[in-house]
Amino acid sequence: xxxxxxxxxxxxxxxxxxxxxxxxxxxxxxxxxxxxxxxxxxxxxxxxxxxxxxxxxxxxxxxxxxxxxxxxxxxxxxxxxxxxxxxxxxxxxxxxxxxxxxxxxxxxxxxxxxxxxxxxxxxxxxxxxxxxxxxxxxxxxxxxxxxxxxxxxxxxxxxxxxxxxxxxxxxxxxxxxxxxxxxxxxxxxxxxxxxxxxxxxxxxxxxxxxxxxxxxxxxxxxxxxxxxxxxxxxxxxxxxxxxxxxxxxxxxxxxxxxxxxxxxxxxxxxxxxxxxxxxxxxxxxxxxxxxxxxxxxxxxxxxxxxxxxxxxxxxxxxxxxxxxxxxxxxxxxxxxxxxxxxxxxxxxxxxxxxxxxxxxxxxxxxxxxxxxxxxxxxxxxxxxxxxxxxxxxxxxxxxxxxxxxxxxxxxxxxxxxxxxxxxxxxxxxxxxxxxxxxxxxxxxxxxxxxxxxxxxxxxxxxxxxxxxxxxxxxxxxxxxxxxxxxxxxxxxxxxxxxxxxxxxxxxxxxxxxxxxxxxxxxxxxxxxxxxxxxxxxxxxxxxxxxxxxxxxxxxxxxxxxxxxxxxxxxxxxxxxxxxxxxxxxxxxxxxxxxxxxxxxxxxxxxxxxxxxxxxxxxxxxxxxxxxxxxxxxxxxxxxxxxxxxxxxxxxxxxxxxxxxxxxxxxxxxxxxxxxxxxxxxxxxxxxxxxxxxxxxxxxxxxxxxxxxxxxxxxxxxxxxxxxxxxxxxxxxxxxxxxxxxxxxxxxxxxxxxxxxxxxxxxxxxxxxxxxxxxxxxxxxxxxxxxxxxxxxxxxxxxxxxxxxxxxxxxxxxxxxxxxxxxxxxxxxxxxxxxxxxxxxxxxxxxxxxxxxxxxxx
Length: 857
Prior knowledge:
Layout: H1 30-34, H2 81-93, H3 97-110, H4 115-127, H5 131-139, H6 146-158, H7 162-174, H8 182-194, H9 198-211, H10 217-229, H11 233-242, H12 248-260, H13 264-276, H14 283-289, H15 299-312, H16 318-330, H17 334-341, H18 349-361, H19 365-377, H20 384-392, H21 399-412, H22 419-431, H23 435-444, H24 450-462, H25 466-478, H26 485-498, H27 501-514, H28 520-532, H29 536-544, H30 551-563, H31 567-579, H32 586-599, H33 602-615, H34 622-634, H35 638-646, H36 654-667, H37 670-683, H38 689-700, H39 704-716, E1 725-730, E2 733-738, H40 747-763, H41 779-786, H42 790-801, E3 808-812, H43 818-830, E4 835-838, E5 843-847, E6 850-851
Parallel strand pairs: 3-4
Antiparallel strand pairs: 1-2, 1-3, 4-5, 5-6
Helix pairs in contact: 2-3, 2-4, 3-4, 4-5, 4-6, 5-6, 6-7, 6-8, 7-8, 8-9, 8-10, 9-10, 10-11, 10-12, 11-12, 12-13, 12-14, 14-16, 16-17, 16-18, 18-19, 18-20, 20-22, 21-22, 22-23, 22-24, 23-24, 24-25, 24-26, 25-26, 26-27, 26-28, 27-28, 28-29, 28-30, 29-30, 30-31, 30-32, 31-32, 32-33, ...
């Protein structure tokens, strides 16, 4: 079934018409007709099928409600039957089955056993939970009328026993020969609605047509509701169009159907038609309508709907108030939320929770927690939704302490076993980096849903535990759980962190099969994953196939090309992004500055930095200043770099001085390097970067005494250099290597392959760059060490195990040295293989003896 498209006249991008003057907005039915819903005159008839007969039920024994101990009750005068009716209503209101039984006994004792009281007793038993007693009472009535049948049918419908209600409906016509009225059909249709039984509903509709009650406004409203809840919105529209007289309930039912089926513009069009027809909306109409306004671009229309309520004098009770708070929250208008919150004095749990969520999800987390405290002080009973919202409001440095308190509160109130509260706590611990607590909480939960698995998976992925995330994803699939959209995107991010190209491709295929490939978050994750796994071509394809792109999409592809050193492509993408009308943010400019820095485009980088501050009025962060210092330093303009640092609006941090020190190492400027290193050591004495970079400068210049003093200083302060590691993926398994590593099962083959490569490289003019070895040892030992760096062992493994023609992807935790960079260029030419190496700074693409960085990294 093809459903109607959005109504263009009511598109969020078009100026909304004022709701109070709705008749001027749309002609009668024209908009709905233009979007697939025919006019009423297109229908000459509807279903005329009769209901299928059901086997009759055996009559049951009448209920004996009076016992020996009840015979001495105070007699109720026979001439006062209104008192009996009043007592029955009291029993119904208080759900007092025992009291109702006593009244039943009094009815028998006083002789009030006419059909009216019998019907009231059936209703009392049904509403007080005595369905079987109600049926026995019904079977014991000597003369039943239509009301008797309607009462017992309604009782079975309310109890959720649709089959029994249908059977009674058939017996009503067969046994007593009674003609069903509008209430009979209404009860049966309500049962079909509850159980989503479209077939029986259509048969009942046909019988209603034959009985001549289909035009009744009550039946019409029930049919409209039944059809749209049974996923037949077009049949619902047909009934609506054929109904000659429509009241507010009929209109509201159809509007609700449109909204629940995602046709928000059609719902707005019908609401305007409703006012144009002179039908005044009721409170429930607006409770349904406010769900349409769920995004910021619809704020103006939301305010118009609010104004329409005021003009029509609609009383805004607690439930409607909560719906409006939710409406303004989704429209991101905290101004209207604050105004509304000041007008409701007596808040219940639902209104408190709506207010709490509104503040939390719009960034006012402190105010949200204050509301939670007010709820406790107001002695409001905190349910799982309010508690989960309060937990979600905890973030930042205060998350640990507040999370601990809320965790304790949840345990004290017995709500920790609720899955929504557990999921919120896992997310909270994930945000604060407490992975073990999140993990323990997950496995202690009595039951987990798909959100629980996704929360822990996201926790692993966001905190750099990619392998654990993928293992959890595998376990989830083995349990037969169908991954949600965010679950797949988190798993793709985990592949990014461990640079697992093959697993990332499998997840890409999974996203295609599950239908999530068009989701923007999945697309963004795939672009980032392919870029970080060294396949910028696949990243570009994933970006190109995305049906919708937001700022994150553009930033992901720009950052990908930047990391791979394609500065010209980065600038082209930046200009294209401007042409489509999407304003860049600070992350966009950071990727551009990094690309310009790595490619030596100093003029372009300076121009972009000025564009960011002057044209887009974005405040430069420390990362931008560090990129500019790196850009000046790589270009050899160390004096300009120092001047730039002195003009910074705030004190430079570790990243700025590290950028300057790296440039000093590249240009062998010892004095300025010492100054930058001293600044780094002062800011973070436990960070080994300053010691290592300065040691490297001294080693390359042969200043071994100075290097030895630095090494002693590192030892005395307990500072340890991170060991160099490289890893390569083969057949879904990650193989990790360190310098002079001999722990791999193929060690002998690897060292033989390296010797073979060494001979070929020497023939091609290769000379080991022993300056890369920072230890004062013999030249032969230095040559042996430099030729067994981790990335060379990784490339030897790849040449042995990865088939010819496939690119070799190697990841390294530190910056690649000059000797390894030279070796990779020669190996790519000798072996005719493409080698993609990612170091701590960027990607290097080695093809036929050349590198994409042009030896500038």
